[in-house]
Amino acid sequence: MSADTVLAQGQPSPGTRPLIPGQAADGAPPAAACPVEERDFTFEGFRYTCRVVGRGEPLTEPILVLGGSSQDRNSWVRHEKTLAPLAQMITVDLPGYGSADFLPAEHGLDFLAAAVRQLLRELGVARVNLIGVCFGGAIALRFAQQCPEAVVRLMLTGMTMRIPANYAASMERWAVMIERGETTAIARELAGHFMSPPGTGLVRKHTAVSRLVYQQMVGQDPEQLSKSAEHNSRLMRHDWYRPGPVPAVPSLVVTGEHDTLTTPAMGHEVVAALPPGARYLLIDEADHLAPVERITEFADLVARFCTDRSLDALPYAHEPVSPAAGAATTAGAATESGTAAP
């Protein structure tokens, strides 16, 4: 089954979605309103590629999405129909990921954040709505710390303050398994980490997305496998999170309610580390891969956040809470997930 087919499954009809300012009633961008451009750049000798979908008269600042390690610049095409009509939408294969050049593990998050800074400079973009997902969330937070003046709003999804201990242990084994060509076993384990186990709770498209995760790993060519192994090495050799000032901008931390990799308890830790005013929100019927499992709803959430619309009483999410309110529920969230932050 193709990724396109998997992502299309289980989508509610467009008429059931709240309309976003500037969005056509059928959920599609106005005709010829959103041209697509791809551009290659080089940062310190490493080539990388970005995808830019633009709107002529934006309703908000450009939306920069930094996806997870298994995502590329094209993983967000289905979100574009909601987000591109609002503003210029930018996705990117940073060095070491997607179709970009291989990046040795000696280059960590500081290097990748610096590449993001160069990307915006090359595009002539001064300030962005910054959306970071999983590994992209760690890059986004590091970039926000290094370039606070470039961030208008900050949204982190599937984020944690540290790499979960069980995932770190798995990465050490995967390095050896990749060398042996044991991709089938790794694919099964990856799906097990990213997807909540049976019985945790209702997750939309759980079976289809689990199959997609498995197929992506099994289908990797030697170059992709080499990048995956180097990514795991990069995670082990560099700081995931580094304490430091974060810009006091509107900030939102998002977790799938059944996420067992970066649990709700871990999400509360992240929002508590952000400046006052940051909020935390759980997406219903989703786990770590909420942006894939609930594409329409996730895009709607990003659109609302980037246009300062209310996040209250959303039909697909819990009510947003502040760190003060969230602290009281952290212990409960950890108990419900069955996994505590290491």
UniProtKB/TrEMBL annotation:
Residue stretches making up the AB hydrolase-1 domain: 62-293
GO molecular function, one term: peroxidase activity
Lineage of the organism: Bacteria, Bacillati, Actinomycetota, Actinomycetes, Kitasatosporales
Region entry Disordered, spans: 1-31, 323-342
Residue spans of biased composition, Low complexity class: 21-31, 324-342
Name by which UniProt lists this protein: Alpha/beta hydrolase
Organism for this UniProt entry: Streptomyces paludis
UniProt keyword annotations, A-Z: Hydrolase, Oxidoreductase, Peroxidase
Database matches in Gene3D superfamilies: alpha/beta hydrolase
Alphabetical list of InterPro entries matching this protein: AB_hydrolase, AB_hydrolase_1, AB_hydrolase_fold, Epox_hydrolase-like
Protein origin, superkingdom: Bacteria
